[in-house]
Amino acid sequence: QVQLVESGGGLVQAGGSLRLSCAASEQTFGSYAMGWFRQAPGKEREFVAAINWTGGTTYYGDSVKGRFTLSRDNAKNIMYLQMNSLKPEDTAVYYCAAEYRSVPTVVGTVDYWGQGTQVTVSS
Fold it and tell me: Which DSSP string do the residues of 50-76 spell out, in sequence order?
């Protein structure tokens, strides 16, 4: 059982930045591909970004490309999502995700979820 704990959410003005972190309890953190999803009120959970097991390849949703950067540190069992040029439409609960067999880009195949962290971007 992998426990994922997100941190770093908060309230920021449009154009600002935040960095989310996802810390994993599992020492085999490097065995999991990781990612972020988000869910706004009344909407379905959507893919934001993902990173492969080594951190050598990243994937981004179209709405965040060029603004968000995903990275991981396998020695520290932690993943970071740097979010720049934030927009009001980025407001959502952001969830950390871990997947053993493939890179997590689809909600239905994620093995483990974090509890979520709220990001609110004011206009």
Answer: EE-SSSS-EEE-TTTTTTEEEEEETTT
Contact 18, 121 (CB under 8 A): no
Partnered with residue 70 across adjacent β-strands are 81
Q: List strand residue ranges (DSSP E) for the chain, in order.
A: 4-7, 10-13, 18-24, 33-39, 46-51, 58-60, 68-73, 78-83, 92-99, 112-113, 117-122
* Order of strands, sheet of 18-24, starting from the edge strand that comes earlier in the sequence: 4-7, 18-24, 78-83, 68-73
Q: Are 51 and 57 in contact (CB under 8 A)?
A: yes
Helix, strand or coil, per DSSP, at residue 30: helix
Render each residue's pLDDT in the chain as its tens digit; 123 residues.
889 999 999 999 999 999 999 999 877 899 999 999 999 999 999 999 999 999 999 999 999 999 999 999 999 999 999 999 999 999 999 999 999 999 999 999 999 999 999 999 999
**Can you tell me the distance from the alpha carbon of 59 to that of 123, in angstroms, rounded to the nearest whole number?**
27
